[in-house]
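Hey Z.,

So I finally got round to the flavin-adenine dinucleotide thing we talked about over coffee. Here's the setup:
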Amino acid sequence: MRAVAEAVVPGFNGLPAAEAEVPVAEPLARFLSRLPTRTVSLVRWALRIFEWVTFPWRFSRLSVESRSAYLEKMERSGLSAYRDLVLLAKLLTMVGYGRDPRVTAKVGSEARCGVREGTPPPEVGPLGDLTPRGDGEQCDVAVVGSGAGGAVAAAVLAEAGLDVLVLESGPYLNHADYPTDPLIGLPMMYRDGGMTVASGRPAIPVPVGRTVGGTTVINSGTCFHAPEEVLREWRDSDGVGWATEIDPDYAAAEEMLAVTPVDPERMGRNGQLCMEGAAALGASGGPISRNAGDCVQCSSCPLGCRLDAKRASHVSYLPRAVAAGARVRAGVQALRVLSEGGRVTGLACRAGLPTDAAEELARDGRPARGRPWEVRARAVVSAGGAFGTPELLMRSGISHPALGRNLHIHPAAWIGARYPEEVRGWEGIMQSYYVDQWQPQGILLEATFTPLSFGAQWLPGIGEAFSDRVANFDQIGSIGVHLHDRSSGRVRSAADGSLRLSYRLSADEARTLQFGIARAAEIHFAAGATEVYPNVGACTVIERGKLAEFEAMDLTAGDLRLEAFHPMSSARMGADPATTVTDPSGAARGAEGLYVADASLFPSSVGVNPMMTVIACASRVASGLAASLAETGRASASPTRALA
Ligand SMILES: Cc1cc2nc3c(=O)[nH]c(=O)nc-3n(C[C@H](O)[C@H](O)[C@H](O)COP(=O)(O)OP(=O)(O)OC[C@H]3O[C@@H](n4cnc5c(N)ncnc54)[C@H](O)[C@@H]3O)c2cc1C
Ligand code: SF4
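And the result:
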């Protein structure tokens, strides 16, 4: 790693040199020691390839200049695997390097949250005792996962008078203890330390949250309704009759989460440039609505909102569920759904995993042991997200052919550009302006500015060229290009219990992404950018006047460098028992009393940021379950008690 980091950022244009001045390998080694064994093995394996890629010479024995030149060649190579490796090298280097105060001081970047003056501090209800009791507990409904879907389901069920127990495998963190250092925050708040990757050409990182509040704690707070045509398709083709009737669910969620459009005055220069570029082209769009009411500045959403301006689940629906009597347990992983005679009776779990930041830090990468813990419940709601739900259902012996398949992720490209003016994207709101002009073609653009540690790896070049762009990060603007994907992937569980993801981007949709990248570039140029970074192997920089040449390229999926944040549809609902894992009420086929209420339910890719639609669907599923439990007289007022 040392040899790679030195080559990526050798020190240029006032930026300190990696390793000689800013240690990267050593803090990264500590970071990696906190990740699951399989993730660490994959990273080690990749780094070993670097050592021998220059055979018969060893990479680490070459001069820094030769190493930089070699990596640069790999970045431009026609081989997708080479480009994946270089991206990994830059990602690891920058997450270690970009956090150092000497680097942030040189760049001038600062993660500083801000809310509108005079905004009162948010009132956040308590979550109660999060420690799992004894050998297990009993309840009417056990909800697995506390993210967008699980939290709202818990609130709806508890408010219907049911005794609800929410289980979350991650720890509880709040505004007082979100780590500012990504090397500490990533393993604490993300599954696999944020290194969850779908294999394929290209390999696509798909990070998800793992903390009380789920991915909502680390997401960007953008709120969209699903496009009408998608909801109509879910109703007409997938048989989800209520799909076009969820406006009241959206409205209730918007009120609960204080959803408001970003004020253009305060969105920051990154959003304003996107807005100006789109206006110059006559492309339709608008300020993004977010669940962070009065937030006016910063870009530290990926490590939690220190002001609780963002109404993530742990400061919104979970306290509401607890106020209605629900119990939340952190550090409890549901392993298997238990059943008797085809009817769900509860969950076999592992409890005693770290429940808070201090315990997670104290673990320091050592495997958390945990203890067997059992839940007795009349119904189980699986809301572990598009990876956690298929995992749990597979481990529970549910073998529907659609389970884990049809995974959609909204593959996304980060399209940065250099401006002749200061952008200082960290001074605005990280996701602020959308352009929907090309939605009919499957492309949604969003001005998104990611902090240095998370965003800089997308800048092209190695060595001096890369360092120059990092040093001028204050002049970088960026737009995310999101694909409304028909391409799909798969979630599998390996024999050792680890998650396996794959995704195959079709040739047609690779071309659609190329079209979307060109539109983002067009907006950047219209707003004054001097060069655009399309993240394409054969073309790392588009210069002004050269867009037509980029568009004429015949790109394949493997040419693109992508990431994704919206996994969904891996346990899809619908009327056809042969092709859907749950019926339209969210009830899993083949296990009476088991429901799904998260992003995995979506019959198909939703095409916009999914959180609000997850909330709306989960609230529908939970209301239906509450009604059916009431109807069958199954609701009980049984007091909380630990199992013997
Ligand atoms: C960086 C990032 C930015 C994003 N930005 C936005 C945005 O701005 N707007 C938007 O709409 N969407 C955004 N998303 C996506 C959005 O947050 C998710 O779609 C949404 O949170 C999914 O909700 P969910 O309930 O399906 O799962 P999650 O919110 O992921 O919650 C699942 C929870 O279940 C837990 N869990 C899983 N398995 C188990 C188990 N077996 N036992 C116990 N617990 C378990 C997990 O630890 C996790 O906490 C973003 C995602 C990322 C990664
Ligand atoms: S919502 Fe995000 S951008 Fe706004 S104050 Fe919180 S962390 Fe910062």
